[in-house]
Design a protein that fits this description.
single chain, alpha+beta, Transferase(Phosphotransferase), domain 1, 4 domains, five-stranded antiparallel beta sheet, 22 helices
Length: 554
């Protein structure tokens, strides 16, 4: 039974969650998470087990429907799960990508109260007009058009009333369920508690609109030298945790082909600009817009892309980008073994992974694309091919990499709609070459690594005296050391040979240098000079013999 006080406090929500999953055919999962299911069913007054369950092939659909029925927390949870093909089968990943976050708007009176609380003043003091009818409504927030008293057109994103308390309740329940699931057989493969913690962190961040505003400022700063992307201004003096006020941008929706043509915009240039935005974010900045659906992009005069909604972002650290480039290089070389080795190096595949099977499946995938040109390869197809491999071998790539894959698929879809000949890989080539060159040549990153390495060595040197004192104290008190050396005889013999060769090498080197200095100071054509030359030749021959023996012994 759920024994914690908070579980009892939220029993009504527990009943709702379990009932929804039960009616959608997931009672077998509840049996695994809660062994005392019969008692739980009586306490929560749940119906008996359904006789007619949906067929297994429809369970993925019902899983999506159950999450939609349970509201915003579970919808967001499903959206995050859609970026984790290492956790769920491909059919579930496909269904979760369809999750819709659209709900009826909250009454204006309730929204007005949240606005007054978030602004800290009456609406009339800030806005000359504000439309009570929202432009868009989602489970966490809704957006209203307004005009400031100073005359600027703005959009106002306001948090739905009471949503924070509801989400905190669901997060506590998910945490309890994760801890219970950790004790099942599935818990041996997955860290459910950590997943729940990461999700809670993401959700709480998304409820703070100041974070979204900072994301917008960061994108604007990253593109301050670019002319093909426009980021709206954030009005920080009237924004808060619950309310975000930003500049309203006007343009044509990026997927409205008829309107784009009517405005006289070049569809090919729009596709290139939208792709360059994402590729620069990933390859250069390491900070990308992770929700690039058509509703978040507008085309403005000059084929400039206007972006909005910066709540969902992804991060690519330097080593993540380098790992991606390494994967790209071995994939282009059709090196299946190299891909598996790189996945293990990245920590995506465990050392106990079935390397033979994984290499075979990756090899088949590579052979499928062997005869195709890069422009004929589609990101969507590649991601769909990789998904079952990731699930079958439990490849644990960082969630941001899966998020990146989903982002590229969405952007490719927009690009192909704008221009049927759109080639994402061609657009990416200059950025890939630039990053490879950055990896191969000395740069500021090398200097930083050297400095950090120096700091690590200095720290180690500083610890040596303290460690030495502890060792001496233990020796004085006759305290034993736990030290075990396997195959010590072989190691000693190997060390003995190495030391002997090192000594001979030093001696030979010294003789060569010494005799070389003696040659010019002896009398020309004298017997002494010929002896010195003979000795020098002999020592050089010995040195060559030593050099050859070193390579033979490896």
């Amino acid at each position: 039974m759920f024994s914690t006080l908070r579980s009892i406090r939220h029993w009504q929500r527990y009943r709702e969650i379990i009932t929804v999953f039960f009616h959608h055919g997931f009672s077998f999962g509840i049996d695994q998470v809660e062994p005392e299911w019969r008692s739980l069913r009586r306490v929560l007054k749940l119906p008996t087990r359904k006789e007619h369950l949906p067929p297994p092939e429809d369970l993925a659909i019902h899983f999506r429907l159950a999450l939609e029925e349970l509201g915003p927390t579970f919808i967001k949870f499903g959206q995050i799960l859609s970026t984790r093909p290492d956790l769920l089968p491909p059919a579930y990943i496909h269904e979760l990508s369809k999750l819709q976050d659209s709900v009826p708007p909250a009454p204006w009176e309730m929204i007005r109260e949240v606005l007054i609380q978030g602004l800290g003043q009456e609406l009339e003091q800030v806005f000359s007009t504000i439309d009570p009818q929202p432009m868009a409504a989602a489970s966490l927030a809704q957006v209203h058009a307004a005009q400031l008293v100073s005359g600027e057109d703005v959009v106002v994103k306001v948090q739905r009333p009471g949503i924070q308390a509801d989400i905190e309740t669901d997060l506590e329940i998910l945490d309890t369920i994760a801890k219970r699931a950790q004790t099942t057989k599935w818990g041996k493969m997955y860290d459910f508690v950590r997943m729940a913690d990461d999700f809670a962190y993401t959700m709480r961040n998304e409820l703070d609109y100041r974070r979204e505003g900072r994301n917008a400022d960061r994108f604007r700063d990253n593109f301050k030298r670019e002319t093909h992307l426009y980021i709206p201004r954030i009005y920080w003096d009237i924004s808060s945790q619950y309310v975000l006020v930003l500049e309203r941008i006007y343009g044509v929706k990026i997927d409205d082909i008829a309107a784009i043509e009517a405005a006289g915009y070049d569809r090919h240039q729009v596709a290139l600009h939208s792709a360059r935005v994402i590729i620069k974010e990933v390859m250069i900045d390491g900070f990308f817009h992770a929700d690039p659906h058509a509703g978040n992009y507008y085309v403005m005069p000059g084929e400039v892309i206007g972006a909005m909604d910066f709540g969902m972002v992804g991060y690519m650290r330097d080593h993540d980008r380098i790992d991606l480039i390494r994967l790209y290089l071995v994939a282009v070389a059709l090196d299946a073994d190299g891909i598996v080795d790189q996945l293990i190096r990245m920590g995506a595949a465990g050392t106990k992974v079935d390397k033979t099977g994984l290499t075979r499946d990756i090899g088949r995938l590579l052979n499928k694309y062997h005869t195709l040109k890069l422009k004929e390869i589609r990101a969507r197809e590649v991601v769909e091919e990789i998904t079952p491999i990731a699930f079958n071998y439990h490849l644990r790539l960082p969630s941001d990499l899966w998020l990146l894959g989903k982002t590229l698929v969405m952007m490719e879809g927009i690009g192909l709609k704008l221009d049927p000949d759109f080639d994402m890989f061609e657009v990416a080539q200059p950025y890939v070459r630039s990053l490879v060159w950055h990896m191969m040549t000395p740069n500021s990153g090398w200097a930083r690594d050297i400095l950090l390495g120096s700091a690590s060595w200095s720290e180690m040197v500083g610890r040596i005296p303290r460690a030495g004192n502890r060792i001496l104290e233990r020796l004085e008190h006759d305290e034993p050391f736990k030290f075990q050396l396997h195959d010590s005889d072989k190691i000693v013999n190997r060390l003995d040979k190495l030391v002997t060769r090192l000594a001979i090498s030093i001696l030979v080197g010294a003789l060569i240098i010494g005799l070389a200095f003696l040659v010019p100071v002896t009398s020309p054509n004298s017997w002494l000079q010929w002896m010195v030359i003979g000795g020098l030749v002999t020592v050089i021959i010995l040195g060559i013999g030593l050099f050859v023996s070193l390579f033979r012994s490896r």
